Automatic annotation (TrEMBL):
The keyword Nucleus does not apply. Pfam families: Acetyltransf_1 (PF00583). GO terms for molecular function: acyltransferase activity, transferring groups other than amino-acyl groups. PROSITE patterns: GNAT. It comes from Longispora fulva. This is Ribosomal protein S18 acetylase RimI-like enzyme. InterPro entries: Acyl_CoA_acyltransferase, Bact_Acetyltransf, GNAT_dom.
Length: 258
């Protein structure tokens, strides 16, 4: 019996594709354009040949570099994306970070001399934007901004989008913002999205002091843990999180197709 031909149809909205076999949907593909301008692909298909057809069509329709995220334990998915021409560009660890100071050991962490830690909601928007610009430039000059969590919410020009000061804890010295942590409070699991300190102020305990304030505040509000992603090559961040009782619960590979 002759096998039905699979056809790929792009949905009118523009960033969704369906694989059709005898007018029945046998696979779906989606493209998500993130706030930083990068496009991430996702494909849901049981059969390898359907996955391949969807991937080939989506890559043909979307010019330029595109990305995907794959669970580190999903060897089948990784093999499929490799077959479509994707390569691993970075790997990150996913941690569950407790907020209870009895577990983290951050119950009493004083700020360094001359530094004030602003609790969530007390930072001002414009100094936060300037700190983001400076930190971004410093990271780009060293390990590169691609080493930051894959979900960083930035515009295509590299600047922050909407800023909610209630999500930030900030370190201030002599009126200048020198460090920040950011959290997204979500229904299922809150996410620690950023811990950053100006290069000249590192190794002073600022990250621990900011985390002590943020995690303690979350604990008092009833949140018992947050998730955090750390680049697999960022040994300093890995050491910091594991020193406060964070448990690795998984990992993800970011893959790209040029």
């Amino acid at each position: 019996m002759e096998k039905d031909i699979v056809e790929i149809a792009r949905i009118v909205e523009g960033l969704r594709w369906h694989a059709l076999e005898d007018d029945e949907v046998v696979g779906r593909g989606d493209a998500l354009r993130r706030p930083d301008g990068r496009v991430f692909l996702g494909i849901d298909a049981w059969r390898d040949e359907v996955f391949g057809l969807l991937a080939a069509t989506m890559l043909s329709d979307l010019p330029g570099t595109v990305y995907t995220l794959v669970d580190e334990d999903d060897q089948e998915a990784r093999a499929r994306w490799r077959g479509a021409g994707f390569v691993v560009c970075r790997q990150e660890r996913v941690y569950r970070v407790p907020t209870d100071p009895e577990i983290t050991g951050l119950g009493r962490v004083p700020a360094p001399p001359g530094v004030t830690i602003l609790p969530m909601g007390q930072a001002e928007e414009e100094p936060l934007r300037e700190l983001d610009r400076v930190v971004r430039a410093e990271v780009d000059a060293t390990v590169g901004w691609q080493s930051m969590p894959a979900e960083m919410r930035t515009r295509p020009d590299g600047t922050l989008g909407v800023i909610d000061p209630s999500a930030y804890v900030v370190a201030v010295q002599d009126g200048e913002y020198i460090g920040q942590t950011r959290v997204a409070v979500l229904p299922r699991r809150s996410r620690l999205g950023l811990v950053a300190v100006r290069t000249a102020h590192r190794r002073r305990g600022l990250a621990r002091a900011m985390l002590a304030e943020m995690l303690g505040s979350l604990h008092r509000s009833g949140i018992t843990s947050v998730s955090a992603e750390v680049d697999d090559l960022n040994k300093a961040a890995i050491t910091l999180f594991e020193s406060i009782g964070a448990q690795r619960v998984g990992g993800a590979m970011e893959m790209l197709h040029l």
